[in-house]
Amino acid sequence: MRREMPAAIGLWLMVVPFVLVGALAILMPLPFAMRSTEMTQNPVANIPLIRGMGFAFIAAGLALWFEREDSKDTIWKASLCVALLTLAAMIAYAFRLENWWIDDAGITFSYSRSLAEGLGIRAQPWLPPEEGYSSSAWMLLLAVFARLGADIPLTAKALGVGFSAASMLICTGLVARFTRSPVAALACGLGIAVTPTVVWSASGQEHALQGLLLTLMVLCVFAMANWRWPVAVLLSVYVLTRPEGPMIVIAVFLTGIWLTRQSNGRLFNTADAALALLPFLTFVGLMVFRVTYFGDVFPNPYYAKSSEAGFIGLINPLSGGWFYLLSGLRDSGVLWILPLIFLVRGRPPWMVIGFSIVAAHVVFVVWAKGDWMGQYRFLMPVLPVAVMLATCGVSQLGGPGVRQIFGACAALLLVHTTTIQVATFATRPTTPMAAVTEVGNGFRNLADRLQIEDPLLAHHDAGGIAFHRMVRLADLGGLVNRTIGMHMDDSDFLTTYLVEDLRPDFVFGARNFAASSGFAETPAFAKAYVPLIFADNPGMVAEISFIRRDQVKEADGVTLEKDADSHLVSVTVTALN
């Protein structure tokens, strides 16, 4: 009795603060936000984050309470409550980004809109059919919803958060079933609901669908004796979802052969062949469609995003890919729970498949040297499977007391990290589609002043402008313009192509992508274009800003600056909006 009393008191001392702080955060989020150094600049906007923290802390309190030895008869009810509360936390976090879509998502939106409107697969009506998106499956899915009358950006955000929610519920359920530990379910849920998941679920891009497909593959192996055929179907969809799909197919196929060898001594069977054959046929079909419809076996991103990725980066521990991987795991807090993988014993087939998926995805991330976008976009899709595998080791930590201490520490670390990082990202998000849309609206306004009927803007951010179509777009990023993408570093070609062929009315953007070639510094370009200055408009300031000389005229708010010889030197625009 004397031993049990201190343990009970210690448990209460852990549970009560979590539940109390969680309840206060849900009921009174504003005072919490106003007292956080990362949220004081915009406390009202960060209320969803505080409420998410509240749901997570209550989930932690319940998990700690029901981790006792005498609560095993309520394990499923407890785990379900923990899973639903961590799910509520992730959804609340996502509400902080309800008004943000990354501009790259707008590229896919533009193709989905065109397809739904019967214009074919093209970014804008005036452009030829070219594949400038990264995910055929995501583009087609959004086109179906658009055809049914749904708003494409809102649908993309809802589907993204919904797919990640499904991945979280599946993973926490598998962990609870394997460990019979509410703390393990808690660690799994919170480990999935970290900043990369929140950000890229809400971004409008396809990564949540990618993550759900990987999670469903593991679920099929867990729940079905004859899992190879359904997994082959999922792999076929996955090939249409991301360019790195073939790497996952190869990993799962080889692992399936190894499992067959382990189970019955045979080297190969028909079902194993399906793991490679169905995705391969899908891939071949995609190639045939590309050649037939687009006239090229490669999509535009292949040309526009060529990099120094290669084998050397895989074996160089100091390469950018390894740094990206380890930095992402560290910054999200997931790094500190992944070592639990080494505690898992007696790994069943579903875990072996999960390990192969994680390994293949890591190879891709390191080979590609990561990604320039914030919050580790390339890590997000595999996080559910990786965290699920790791948290299965919680049951091997020791007795309930050790697991409770681990659960409390994990909750504090993951919740604090996610709350602060989402708040920070929301303040300075990666290339908002709304900001690019405003650039397009600004040039539409200027074109109306100058009486340019069908203006063409050359700009490196294509999404918001291509989707909303306020002006025609020449994509200096090369994603929706194959010609630019194929000659990204060729200054002479780009100068001729822009000045003589496309003849954009405006050229605007940063010195990146095609502009990094230096075409804007050539004599031919300077002869055709004149610097364009937007006064008192921070959103319209760029390193490269030009208007074609033959489109310049006197207009309200447009000032023409000339030198002593009456040669036009620059054009200044005021009161644009």
Structure description:
There is one protein chain. The protein is built from 24 helices and 7 strands. It is mostly helical and 577 residues long. Strands 2-1-3-5-4-7-6 form a 7-stranded mixed beta sheet.
Blueprint (SSEs and pairs):
Layout: H1 4-27, H2 29-34, H3 47-66, H4 75-95, H5 103-116, H6 136-147, H7 152-179, H8 182-192, H9 195-201, H10 207-223, H11 228-239, H12 245-264, H13 270-294, H14 300-304, H15 311-315, H16 320-332, H17 349-367, H18 383-391, H19 400-427, H20 433-449, E1 456-459, H21 463-468, E2 472-475, H22 482-486, H23 491-502, E3 506-509, H24 523-528, E4 529-534, E5 544-548, E6 558-562, E7 568-573
Parallel strand pairs: 1-2, 1-3, 4-7
Antiparallel strand pairs: 3-5, 4-5, 6-7
Number of helices: 24
- Sheet/helix structural class: mainly alpha
Rg from Cα? 27 Å
Q: Note the beta-strand portion.
A: 5-15%
Number of strands: 7
Low-pLDDT runs: none
Q: Level of helix content?
A: 55-70%
Strand order of the largest sheet: 2-1-3-5-4-7-6
Q: Note the main sheet.
A: 7 strands, mixed
How confident overall, as mean pLDDT?
92
* Global geometry: globular
Distance between the termini: 75 Å
TL;DR?
It contains 24 helices and 7 strands. It is mostly helical.
Short descriptors:
577 residues; mainly alpha; seven-stranded mixed beta sheet; 24 helices
